[in-house]
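Lab notebook, bench 4. The sequencing result for the construct came back, and we need a structural model before the next group meeting so we can plan mutations. Quick request posted to the team channel:

Model the 3D structure of this chain.
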Amino acid sequence: MKRTLTCTVLAVLFGLHASLAMAKAVSTPENWDYLQPDRDQVIASLNVVELLKRHHYNKPPLNDARSAKIFDSYIQMLDPSRSFFLASDLEEFGKWRNQFDDFLKGGNLEPGFAIYKRHLERLQNRLNYALGLLDKGVDSFDFTVDEELLVDREKAAWAKNAAELDDLWRKRVKDEVLRLKIAGKEPKAIEELLTKRYKNQLARLNQTRGEDVFQAYINAFAQSYDPHTQYLSPDNAENFDINMSLSLEGIGAVLQSDNEHVKIVRLVPAGPAEKSKQIAPADKIIGVGQSDEEMVDVIGWRLDEVVKLIRGPKGSVVRLEVIPASNAPNDQSSKVVAITREAVKLEEQAAKKSILNLQHDGRDYKLGVIEIPAFYLDFKALRSGDKNYKSTTRDVKKLLTELQQEKVDGVVIDLRNNGGGSLQEATELTGLFIEQGPTVLVRNSDGRVDILADEQPGAFYTGPLAVLVNRLSASASEIFAGAMQDYHRALILGGQTFGKGTVQTVQPLNHGELKLTLAKFYRVSGQSTQHQGVIPDISYPAEVDTKEIGESALPEALPWDSIRAVRSDDMNPFKPFLTELKARHETRTGENPDFVFTRNRLALAQELSHETTVSLNEEKRRAQQESIEKRQLALENALRQAKGEEPLAKLAQEDETPPHADDKKGKPEDDAYLAESGKILLDWLGLNEAVAKNNLPRE
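Done. Here's the predicted structure in token form:
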């Protein structure tokens, strides 16, 4: 791809540019006129239009339909809770709804800037109104009145006038006060916290730069194509791995924006956050502190700003204040976690083996378990000629050799929480378990399909095999699991995988960079891993809500589809037994305390997530929260009782390690999902042997 613009585009640019305001004057808080697009931004926007037109995987036309998507995306980005704009604002902006395609083709950024400046004006008014309420003191709120706040406002009607917004914001502030009051904070502390929060947001508002506006507007355009196509400003381009791929070095967490909060999507295996056992996917970060310094409230901050606070020198300590995902929707109680920043060491992410000892049908069995946290390859050592360079495939091959020497009856590959990594390693690892052949297909935007294949004849391990996955198994993990399923080489067990089946590249612009989706992964069966992920042969209860975490939870995610298969579907040795295997699994896990606990905990979370309003009556709110906490405690104690552990008097509080945080530590037999995977594999072994012994038909 070329970085230069065509002559036609340049002519459009210079014809327009005489009308652009070039001044970068400093404004007063009430005046946003200094926010104007500059020449570099106009050129960058035209570059983005051309790159997406020529190279995006889908190459959708930039037309009126796309314009409407851009408009809706931009409004949703600026005001997701419909708490700032008025209905009259939307009516005024509506005249542009079908014109953003023309604006972008012509390099006209003015409408995008105009909408953003109106947003700043409305936000400033709301923050000042909230501060005015707090000036009267938090005791001025009457918590005996029966009224409710609509918290799920994604489809709420826009306020008709300022009076309606005033009432909404009175309820919002009242709700924040009540949440903090129930969490145990004193009135003066509540007033100080919220006043400081709103004043900080005002101060940051008044530091808005034209680049902030441009980035938001162009991303509304770029992300109307798919969630992984994004514009990176010059400041953020150097932090690409952190900001735009949502991968956070330093503590090892994957983050994304979630309205006013920053949400944890997943934890990097062997990273500092994962080791802490104190935070989990879907937790929300509301504060960041450096070592012993004061905690900074980050509600309402942009993702990149929060990232800058969390990053720091290796060996230093960052403190995160988080609202656990396990809290009830109305429960804003938080905990503070101290994490020492460090690089994730390759040896800590290396594949590991263990032995799973099981009794099954009156016999003792020994299964090998290989846990693969990531698909890694030490490129530096490889390039330097080090014959002992580390890679996933080399390490797994060594572990398989050791397990075979120990005469295991089968092997379970544990890919839970493996977010991916080297595509080359996913391909080469597949080659250890198949005779020879294609492993993954890569289709580009022109329709050309490249086939990656295992060229080495012969499989290294031919014994019984199961692969354990979950919702946080992504990318390279899905390629390997999909190949094992399509070759009928392994039973795939666990949860539906993440569904990240697209390929991105970064293209430098004259101003910043563009990360765009230019290809898609497909399995040898022709099925995409995009959106749908890999569906297990036998499913386990989900540990996270798949509506909250996963590719399908992202707006404008590219759909699942299929292309021509490159491998004929031969006999599936598992198919004749799947019905019986599922029946045995359900019988075994119907009363299994870990499976029951996971099912019931997710069911409770999903039930609570459907509540769209909260009561602002303190008595009712406390009663509701007490009821939810009792239900959560009952679930936890039912699990503890089934395991012969002492019941808890209350749920884990701040700075306490959550119960069962170390369930994957210790013996493999104590990991319920791992043990069940072994039992399913042994079930299949027994059924298959019985058929072979009695020479029975398999279909």
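The CA atoms of residues 406 and 652 lie 41 Å apart.
Will bring this to the meeting.
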